[in-house]
Amino acid sequence: MLIRSDAISEAAMGAAKVAREAVQTASEKWCEMIDALAVVNGPVAYEHIIDHINQPVSESYNVAARRRSRKTSYKDTAPFLLPPPDTLEPSPMEE
Predict the structure, then answer these.
(1) Tell me, what DSSP letter sits at residue 91?
(2) Alpha helices in the chain (DSSP H)
(3) In the chain, what is the greatest distance between 2 CA atoms, to the nearest angstrom?
(4) Dihedral of the CA atoms 69, 75, 76, 82 (nearest 10)?
(5) Are 88 and 82 in contact (CB under 8 A)?
(6) Rounded Cα–Cα distance for residues 1 and 7 (Å)
(7) What pLDDT does 47 receive?
(8) Which of 28, 60, 64, 84 is a good FRET partner for 50, with 20 to 30 A between their CA atoms?
């Protein structure tokens, strides 16, 4: 089995973060340019591309919202579990 050292792991995570931020910045600039063209030339000519850009963006927002809503406390995830032993009532046979 291959085990990565902490330094290699952190370097890989750092490189991924830098790449993600670069892509995010480039896509924001691209969207700003399309918005500017829509303002100057009219939105009708750019509705199709704007819709195609907005679709994956809204899907990613929905996925992020679902992931945030799944993060619940332990009490919410396991209501069927018994309470700690010190709070249980003794059974009739124990008395």
Answers:
(1) P
(2) 6-41, 47-70, 74-77
(3) 86
(4) 150
(5) yes
(6) 18
(7) 93
(8) 64
* CA–CA distances in Å: residue 30 to residues 44, 46, 50, 51, 62: 18, 13, 11, 14, 22
The structure tokens 């009490």 sit at 75
Under 8 Å between Cβ of 13 and 6: no
The pTM score is 0.54
Assigned token pair, 1: 């089995």
Q: What is the mean pLDDT of residues 79-93?
A: 56
Dihedral sign (CA 12, 17, 18, 22) = positive
pLDDT confidence of 70, banded at 50, 70, 90? confident
